[in-house]
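Example record

The entry below shows one chain as it appears in the dataset: sequence first, then structure tokens.
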Amino acid sequence: MLCLCVFLGIVENTILNVALPSLRADLGASTGELQWITDAYVLVFAGFVLVAATVADRVGRKGALLAGLGVIGVFSMLAAFATTAGQLVACRAVLGLGAALVFPTSLSILVNVFTDPVRRGRAIAVWGAVAGVSAAAGPILGGLLLQVFPWGSIFLANVVIVALVLAGAVVLPKSRDPAPRRVDVAGSVLSIVTLTVLVWSIIQGQHDWSAPAVLVGFALSAVLLTAFVLVERRVAAPVLDLALFRNTRFSVPAFAVMIAFFVLNGMLFAVTMYLQSVRELTPLQAGLCMLPGGLVMIAVSRLGARLVERLGTKLVVTSGFLLCTAGLLLISGLAAGSATVQAIVAVAVFYAGLQLISAPAATAIMNEVPKEKAGAGSAVNNLTRQLGTALGIAVLGSVLSTVYRGQLGEYAQGAGLPAPITTAALENVGAAVGLAHGSSDAGLLAAAKDAFTAGMSLASLTGAALLVVAAVATAATLPGKRFRNRTNE
């Protein structure tokens, strides 16, 4: 049941990508509206995840999980029958709130079920593997549904999953913080506002990092973050115990998770566009290309847990970073004419490394938090994932876009393309490929694909460099022996 909760929380985000063309056609959604249909979920999820985890610890994790599932079920149904882009944005935002209750709570319940450190590590490895497989399964499931049903079916699929989880939820144990303290109202409000403003600024920065609204947003985020830190250092029962971050056994794994998901989501964004626009595969075919990577994650999950038991978290996580780096280097070498199998192998190598990072790091984070405070550790684990997701798409997407627009712009100027065609082609590679096919312009087609692969290559190399830095930092700061389990102390 807990793995189904993870599947639901991640598929809800990745399944939507394949439906964006249908949403544009049926709802008349603009590019900006499509952006917010996608980002509203991440924005609210990230903003409320700390507070949701605290509420779950206080009122009961099973109750919070069921409440979140109820929210997802109801608003998925409403989203399926939305008639305007604005309605869909609103539904997606509320779905993010439901996910903030469900996703971290599932991990905190798992920690309370598996108290033995070895069994807990293996359980979290499975939990992490399901998270990775879910990211790959989203496009596949979406492609299958859209071949037969309208776009609303991708939200009705959520309703089916919610029904399955609710049917089996009777077996889940009840747990909560046995000694809940006073609610940190000021910290809770500041955490929501700070994270919302920060993620909003990151999302908007994809379009123009120097825009006044973006700069003001980042400045306001810094002020709010400072206020949040000052408040949390003074209250007796903070919504986020900042003292945890002074412990490298907690803070370094949290950093590792954020970097891993930063690169993961930037890579998924680029490779998905590469397969569908450059290789011109269907959404279903592109999703199937991701499936071997998901299967590799399942295989590595059990191996990774056992490796941590034998070799320790430092060596396993560091090796994971290096394996992810190898995957990105393979992706950086993809060209417009590369065989599809090269992309499949590159993604599988990256996913293998990701599983060696995310599950051991999550286990390390949770082992440093007493089980009655599991919600706090789970919230940090999920917050770092969401921040990494938003940053990765924004930063690596911007690197890709800058190279693509610059290189294709030079071609358009040299070829004397009309301004309207140039503007449309520079919007994204999918639009350029469509224009090229429509006008039988082989030169534009080749130029657009070459410009995109050049941008993807630089973005991949940027991510690879960051992963190497993370590998060095992990090797230098984590202790050589595996983490002790504080819940038994």
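Notes for this example: The chain has two domains: 2-183+237-407+451-480, 184-236. Residues 482-489 have pLDDT under 50 and may be disordered.
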